[in-house]
Design a protein that fits this description.
single chain; 206 residues; alpha+beta; Alpha-Beta Plaits; Sulfite Reductase Hemoprotein, domain 1; 5-stranded mixed beta sheet; 4-stranded antiparallel beta sheet; 9 strands; binds iron/sulfur cluster
């Protein structure tokens, strides 16, 4: 048996949340093979072990059934979104999809989580993510520096209010790019934010 590596597999961002179809799940099992490890992560991606030599073929087959495939490990996770229970329009499904396309799978100094909630109830816990987006009536608020782990767990700080749909993906992309370029080694996003300061980050994305 050849060398194996992990890939991250997720369903599309959609109304209803992280829904897999039976076809998608059976395809994952078939392509991974009987001995593969398949792990359910806490960030709504499945980590699937694949033989390195079959990587491209497996990715292509998974995409054919509507699944999204990203790198595992030190990268931005696919958007951790809510269930859009208020409906696609009210909860901002298109904006969330656009944001996911812009940020998912970017190589980063430490694994980075971006959350999205379609309203202030925030049932996807966006304030516990490195970057959290919450839709208000017609615009979006962005929070940064949420930390759910450890004894110093804390909620994210309000970073920007009233961001338009057009500006949302570019602003979050700039934040991630700046973190990627300026983090010290494997500096976590929250520590980076505290060192660089929120004011400086605001100037970067302006
Ligand atoms: S965050 Fe709001 S829109 Fe999204 S699932 Fe929760 S209650 Fe519904």
């Amino acid at each position: 048996m050849g060398e194996k590596m992990k890939i991250a597999v997720a369903p599309a961002i959609q109304v209803g949340g992280s829904l897999f179809t039976p076809e998608q799940l059976s395809r994952i099992g078939f392509l991974a093979g009987p001995d593969a490890q398949i792990e359910m992560t806490s960030f709504k991606q499945l980590y699937v072990e694949v033989e390195t030599g079959r990587l491209d073929e497996v990715k292509e087959e998974l995409r054919k059934v509507g699944l999204e495939v990203y790198p595992a490990g030190f990268a931005t996770k696919s958007l951790i979104a809510c269930h859009f229970c208020r409906g696609a329009e009210d909860a901002g499904l298109e904006a969330a999809k656009k944001l996911n396309r812009a940020i998912a799978g970017i190589e980063t100094p430490t694994p980075l989580k971006v959350g999205y909630a379609g309203c202030g109830l925030g049932t996807s816990e966006p304030l516990l993510k490195d970057i959290g987006v919450v839709k208000t009536r017609d615009t979006f608020n962005i929070y940064i520096g949420g930390e759910p782990k450890g004894l110093k767990a804390s909620v994210a700080t309000l970073f920007l209010e009233g961001v338009s749909e057009e500006q949302l993906a570019p602003v979050v992309s700039k934040l991630i790019a700046y973190y990627k370029e300026n983090a010290k080694g494997k500096e976590k996003f929250k520590k980076f934010m505290e060192r660089v300061t929120i004011e400086q980050l605001k100037a970067i994305v302006a």
